[in-house]
Design a protein that fits this description.
By secondary structure, this protein is mostly helical. The protein has six helices and no strands. It has helices at residues 3-25, 36-51, 60-73, 83-87, 89-123, 134-142. 12% of the residues are buried. The mean pLDDT is 80.
């Protein structure tokens, strides 16, 4: 496999692993704490079964120790041509996987809050609430809406 495709493969597999670990540890998903180790082990096993043909590392420490020993014994170099694949790609993949999960989780959380607010308003008898976008709010503040001539909003009297 060419160097670029191996690097992308290692990054994507590590990103998948970190994304899954973030999901397992998310308190909003309510996975029981006692099942966390089994879930993480299952994810690692499935990744190794599914992507094992690519000689995945998933962890820079799995490659660094043998690489150090090979360097000390004279069998290889610490930073030879393939070192970036198993030393740097997992670090970049972990950052990408964590970032992807935090972005998707914040989006899902905002959608959850909107659904809860809509349900709360429906329970109170309020239907069809329109939430203006920031651009619409800015335009309404810059330009007050024009009303047809002679029509005024009725004033409500407080009793």
């Amino acid at each position: 496999m060419p160097l670029i495709s191996q690097t992308v493969s290692e990054m994507s597999v590590t990103a998948l692993l970190v994304f899954s670990i973030f999901a397992i540890g998310d308190p909003n998903l309510a996975i029981p704490h006692a099942l966390t180790p089994a879930c993480v082990g299952t994810v690692i096993t499935l990744i190794n079964i599914g992507f094992g043909g690519f000689a995945i590392g998933l962890n820079p420490a799995r490659d660094l120790g043998p690489r150090l020993i090979a360097t000390l014994t004279g069998d290889g170099g610490l930073f030879d041509a393939g070192a970036c694949i198993y030393l740097l790609s997992p670090i970049l993949g972990a950052v990408l996987g964590g970032y992807a999960y935090t972005q998707l989780a914040s989006y899902a959380q905002s959608r959850r809050v909107v659904r809860q607010a809509a349900a709360l308003l429906r329970d109170q008898g309020v239907y069809g609430v329109v939430v203006p976008t920031p651009d619409a709010m800015r335009r309404s503040l810059e330009q007050p809406p024009s009303s047809p001539a002679g029509s005024q909003m009725p004033q409500l009297a407080l009793a």
